Amino acid sequence: MATLQKSESFSLMGTLAASCLLLIALSVQGGAAVPVRSHCRLDKSNFQRPYITNHTFMLANEASLADNNTDVRLIGEKLFRGVNMSERCYLMKQVLNFTVEEVLLPQSDRFQPYMHEVVSFLARLSNELSQCRIERDDQHIRRNVQQLKDTVKKLGESGKIKAIGELNLLFMFLKNACI
User: Fold this and answer.
1) Helix, strand and coil percent figures for the chain, each rounded to 5
2) Is the pLDDT of residue 34 over 70?
């Protein structure tokens, strides 16, 4: 009887080990991006804190008052052209990374007192999405994000102010795409 239990125990351990190896192999797949959708999610509670929500919207409002270019929209439906619903969080991760690294951090001395807290919040969200990948080629997403980056660069300082003025849109689109 003890031998039978030992045999079943080794069989179960072997099955568990094989399952773990299979999961590891599937997750690596030669270094290619794999569908790990759980990494392309943010917790709903990130968007339910009135304090940070208010500061994000107040910062956006303050910057939009300094935005003289009302003809251009950076974050909108055009950004999602050709992007599947399941890929939208990945796209927003790319927009978030650009906004934090190229717009907010260099402008961190402006639009006080909200900038520091909003940058910290968005940087934390960016970190939470750092493992977010998609399973197929992301050229179409990179092209859309590159158009946004090119528009910001073309507008110069005004483009950075516009991006800060659209933080409310970034917040809402992130929420809709990633929770």
Assistant:
1) 75, 0, 25
2) no
